UniProtKB/TrEMBL annotation:
Membrane-spanning residues: 12-33, 45-66, 78-95, 101-117, 122-140
Protein's UniProt name: DUF1468 domain-containing protein
High-level lineage: Bacteria, Pseudomonadati, Pseudomonadota, Alphaproteobacteria, Hyphomicrobiales
InterPro entries: DUF1468
Pfam families noted in UniProt: TctB
Residue span, DUF1468 domain: 14-149
Keyword tags: Membrane, Transmembrane, Transmembrane helix
């Protein structure tokens, strides 16, 4: 099997898996929806939205895999460095999340991912990451009532 055919097969398989997950989420959500619900955006809204996104992306992958032709040259060179850097950032966040909290861990993750995508301005990436992490922490903890780990940094300032 030539490399282009392998890529088409991989896209078709991934698209099929995404479609199966979308169907499973949709079916599971339908079985848990309460019929007496009055709210416009209820507990089933986001699972339906996720299922729709997965279904659309899966369909696009399958359709493109069935009709697309891939150039033989150029695409097969994989730069593993950025992928490894993103994975290292995710692992770091996983390891330090409970200790340093959401804001610090996500700020570091943002800076690492930005570096993996080629941005070398560490201070700007840390500042932007801090803003994004702080806003997401506020939205989840204060507006949605979902608790993200605060960590010792936030707890120190709140005491």
């Amino acid at each position: 099997m030539n490399p282009a055919a392998k890529l088409r097969t991989a896209h078709a398989v991934l698209g099929g898996i995404m479609l199966l997950i979308a169907i499973a989420i949709f079916a599971d959500t339908i079985t848990h929806v309460s019929s007496g619900q009055q709210a416009v955006v209820g507990p089933a809204f986001f699972p339906f939205l996720i299922a729709l996104g997965l279904a659309v992306n899966g369909t696009v992958l399958v359709v493109n895999a069935l009709r697309a032709t891939f150039a033989e040259e150029g695409w097969s060179q994989i730069d593993i460095g950025p992928v490894a850097l993103v994975l290292a950032g995710l692992l770091l966040q996983l390891l330090v999340l409970e200790t340093v909290g959401w804001i610090a861990a996500t700020t570091l993750l943002f800076a690492i991912v930005a570096r993996a995508f080629g941005n070398r301005n560490l201070l700007a990436n840390l500042a932007i990451g801090l803003i994004v992490a702080g806003l997401s922490y506020y939205v989840f903890n204060e507006l949605l009532g979902l608790s993200l780990p605060a960590g010792w940094i936030v707890e120190h300032f709140l005491d």
